[in-house]
Amino acid sequence: MLFYALSTIYSVAAFGFFVTGEYTLRLPEFDFPPMDPLFYEYGTVMLNSGEIRGEVIMSNVTAIGLSKARISNARTQFLSHDVFHLEISVQIPEILLKGVGKINGSLSVFRIINEGHFNITLNDVRALWEITGHVVNDTWIVEEFHITPLIGKFKIYYKDLSENNKQLSDLIINFINEFWPAIYRSVLPIINKELEKFYIDIANRLFAKVSFSKVFP
Fold it and tell me: Which PANTHER family match (predicted)?
C-alpha cells in the first residue's frame, strides 16, 4: 500500500519532464501514450528493512495528477570530458493512486497477509533527479539515475476484500497514516535500488533517439 505508492511515484517521476509541456530542455516529441492518467498493470516490491519485511504486489493501478508536474530547476555539467551530469528538481501538487494491493509480510508487530483495494492521496511531491553517463558519438548513455522524492502529505484508504480482516486492516491503515514518514525513510533506499535499472532503461531508450548536442546545446 504505502510501499507501492512510493514505488509508483518514482516510476512516474522518471517521465515527468517529457510530459508536462513545460520543458527546461529542448526535447523532441516522443510517441508515448497519455501519462495522465497513468495505468500500471502489475508490479512487485520486496522489502527487508528493519521492521518492514515482505512482498508487496500491486495491480491495475491508476495514477492521476502527473500533468501538473513542473520543473523548478535544472543544472547540467560535464564531470569529465565525456561524462555528463544532469540534475532536475520537479514538483507535483497532488497525485491520486488507486488499485489492488496484495501483501505477505510484517510491519512492526503486525503480521500481514492481505488483499484489497486502495486509494492514496499524495500532496506536495518534490523530487530531485540526478542523472549521469558517458557521451559517445553524440549520444548520452545514462549509467546512473538517482531520484530523491519528498512527500508533503500522505493519506491512504483501504477496503479489505475479506470482511473478516476489517478490524486488523483498519488498525494497520491507521498505523501507516500516523507513522508514514518513518516508514518512508525506511523503505526509500530499497525502492531506489530496485528501480534504478528501470529508470536507466527508460532514459537510454529516449536519449538514443536524439542528438546529445541538440538536446544540450
Answer: BCDNA.GH05536-RELATED (PTHR11008:SF18), PROTEIN TAKEOUT-LIKE PROTEIN (PTHR11008)
Are the C-beta atoms of 180 and 155 separated by less than 8 Å? no
Q: How far apart are CA 160 and CA 171, in angstroms?
A: 12
In this structure, whether the domain defined by 2-215 belongs to CATH 3.30.300.30 is answered with no
CA neighbours closer than 13 Å in the CB half-sphere of residue 201: 6
Q: Are 172 and 112 a contacting pair, CB within 8 Å?
A: yes
Q: Which of 17, 160, 6, 174 is nearest to 95 (CA)?
A: 6
> Secondary structure of 130-196 in the HEC alphabet?
EEEEEEECCEEEEEEEEEEEEEEEEEEEEEECCHHHHHHHHHHHHHHHHHHHHHHHHHHHHHHHHHH
- Chain Cα centroid distance, residue 159: 23
Peptide bond before residue 37 is cis, with ω within 30 degrees of 0? yes
Average pLDDT by stretches of 10, the chain with 217 residues: 41 38 40 64 77 83 84 89 92 91 82 86 91 95 90 90 75 88 82 77 83 84
Question: Cα separations (Å) of 116 from 42, 66, 148, 173, 174?
Answer: 15, 25, 29, 12, 16
Among 77, 80, 69, CA closest to 216: 77
- Cα separation of 109 and 145, whole Å? 35
